[in-house]
Task: structure prediction
Amino acid sequence: MYFFSRFIFLILICIVTACSVLPVDSKKHTIDLRPYQKSVQIQVPFYAQRDDLCGPTALAMAMEHVKKPVNFKQLEAQVYTSGLKGSLQQDMLTAARRQGLLATTLYTPEALFKELNNGQPVILLLNLGVKAWPKWHYTVATGFDVEREIAWINSIKPQEEIALQHLLMQWYRGGKWGMVVTQPNHLPISASAEDILQSAIGLERASQNEKALQTYRAATAKFSNSALLWMGRGNTAYANKLPDEAYHAFEKAIELNPKNGAAYFNAIQILQEQKKNDEATLLLEVGLKNAESFRDKLFSLK
Amino acid sequence: MTGRQLLHIALASSVIWSTSLVGVAQASSALISTESAVEVEQSSALKNALNRSDVQAALIEKGISVAEAQARVNAMTQAQLAQLDKQLADMPAGANIVGAVVFVFLVLLITDILGVTDVFSFVKPIN
Result:
């Protein structure tokens, strides 16, 4: 009897403590759904998730959606980490970029709904357990229905129905990490200039300069005031042997931020290569005057 | 000197060697990369080589082959590396006490039944 009552007491404590750490307060999760369609369901090719390969499977589904052929074995090697029995978020991003796709992160429910509303599936990292005892799971969100308050996910089964509240709770508990995979010339609707810059730099790092140039072209059209996006366009145009486009982009970066020493440095080198020595000297003078922190580096071009 | 330290040194020297090769190859015309321009602007320059070899060693320890670990890490941006580095450092060491396991099992069983969590596939939530 003593043990039994202790057991009950323990269970009661469990319930109390467990609930107190969980965000069950519905007000916390109130999201204004009025700007979105009433119901969106995106058709995303399904891969059955076996063992602990939810990372590469989620990525495979997202890739198939943008018509990128999937070599699952290769994807698994690039994403899965056997010692962790799972996949790291950074490896998910990097693997997509190594395939020449644009992989962008998102962290807010507003961004999630914007993407789904726009017909773009989103990979979500969920915590199916609790904070202290996490059970991680990647899933692909494929839609939502406002009136029924449900979401659809490609998880164990295709287009599984899940209570919106439930999904968001698991997503919040997992740190609100989401990822969008698109073709490089197609920018996710929710992404800021800084988000795009980071994912485009990722493509550059993954030696995908041709794809990165496509991203920078689209990004400089959408965010024409970002000096760093023009900088990226210049570098990738140059890497793709398009020096004129590169020079124009560096010029634009200087115009937007006259103290941008790196843009002078790169633009001057292109002029020198094209034997436009007078123009190069002139630009060097301007650069030395404006970009003080870059003086030494610029002097080396004299 | 432990095996791990040796691995670090080997990786660090391989990174230095490969970056110096790149330096030679691009000496004639090396534009400043987008990433470096961002770092200058945001003054967030990190210790490039050291960070990469550390993260690479950590991935190898988790069962990734040397070549694949290098490929993964080389394709990461500085911002990604910093995040991964932090994540690997924060990972629990995995102390396994039977009592704690039983306790957590019970908690999760109950939260599963209540429909708050979804850990065990054999549990059907009450609602």
In short: Strands of chain A lie at 39-41, 80-81, 86-87, 102-106, 122-127, 136-145, 150-154, 160-163, 177-182. Chain A touches chain B through 57 residues (CB under 8 Å).
